[in-house]
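Sorry to interrupt, but I need a hand with the structure work. It will help me judge whether the discrete encoding reads sensibly. Write everything out right here, beneath this request:
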Amino acid sequence: MTRPAFDPERPIDRPVRRLVSIMGNGGGASQAQVWGLAQLRRFELATAEGMRPPTPFAAVVSAEALLSARPAIAALRASGCDEIHVQFDTLGGANEPRAQQLGQLVTTLQRHGMRVHGIFTLGQDHDDPTCFERLVAWVEDQRLAEVELRLWTPDPGGELIRELAREDRVRHRDLQRWDGAHVVVTPAQMSAETLYRGWVWARRQLGSLGSRWRRRPARLTALPGYLLEVGWAALAPLRARARARERLLPALGVGLVMQARL
């Protein structure tokens, strides 16, 4: 099946759904604990010494840490970790080897029996208008379970943001919108509008039933549970509308009573 193409000239034709973290917290995965190489090494050492340290079910593990500490993957699986959230950050530029390296990492994790959830950041200077299609294709080829896409947001107090401001690339100073769901910095190789449209397009593609089916588990035994998850995800918009109606009905009832009295 041919994947849809991204058209940077096509306007967004319907409201954009709120960004919700795959970690389940309202603040997004960027606020979750991120395991780096130090945490992963400590976990591996504690496991080797016969201790039972907590597994990172409620954490995000940096892809760089996993690439640097491959033996820790077996320790994670032996501890009972069967799902892992990986902070991939970026696939890099079109001609860089990073996408292949990350693909090998995902294959290793899946061979150890782990479901892999991915978190990516879009809008860095190496990203161009082709990065959205490349990312969607890579995610589907690697069969990632769930994916969170965030727009790149620099540290508001760092030297980098001051340099970007001097280049007139900082779009606004409203820190409430420095949340991964709004464009803060105009990237080097595309407009801010193209970045936002591409981010919305990629999110919608990866949330579609077609994409979820292409990412189905290779093991047939895992298929029933996966189909149940896909069906539940497909009902998410209906559940959201039902909750909105529930919040609206009391106010609507009060309004009708007041109108009847008048």
About this structure: Residues 222-262 form one domain. The longest strand covers residues 115-122. The chain has two domains: 29-152+187-215, 222-262.
